[in-house]
Amino acid sequence: MDPSLVTRDGPEHRNEMRALFAASFAQKTRAQWCAILEGTDACFAPVLSMAEAPDHPHLQARGSLVEVDGIVQPAPAPRFSRTPAEKAVSSERRGAIRP
């Protein structure tokens, strides 16, 4: 680690640090960063599209997403062991007419 980064932790260095981190992260693809960071103790997760999210092992293991009427969406939260959430129901679509 660059020792000078330690002295640049105040708000006056925010834009400078943002640029440094952006330049560093731009040097590798998301897949390369995943290969480097997954399985480490780094607080890390890739930013996924909604099309990718249902296939991610962590989200599958946690049951973080549910499908309702063919639409993948976040599962109810929080989840408690003794009081499970009700099954998600379809929300009305924009412009739907109520019976």
Instruction: Specify the helix fraction band.
Output: 25-40%
**Overall 3D form:** elongated
What's the total helix number? 3
**How many distinct beta strands?**
2
Give the low-confidence spans. Answer: none
How many whole angstroms does the radius of gyration measure? 20 Å
**Total number of domains:** 2
Beta-strand content bin: 5-15%
The major pleated sheet works out as:
2 strands, antiparallel
Mean pLDDT: 84
Please specify the SSE layout and strand pairing.
Elements: H1 14-25, H2 30-37, H3 57-62, E1 65-68, E2 71-74
Antiparallel strand pairs: 1-2
What does this structure look like?
By secondary structure, the chain is of the alpha+beta class. It has 2 domains: 1-43, no CATH class; 45-76, Wheat Germ Agglutinin (Isolectin 2), domain 1 (2-Layer Sandwich). Helix content is 26%, strand content 8%. The chain has 3 helices and 2 strands, in the order αααββ. The protein has helices spanning 14-25, 30-37, 57-62; strands spanning 65-68, 71-74. Strand 1 and strand 2 form a beta hairpin. The chain is elongated and about 60 Å long.
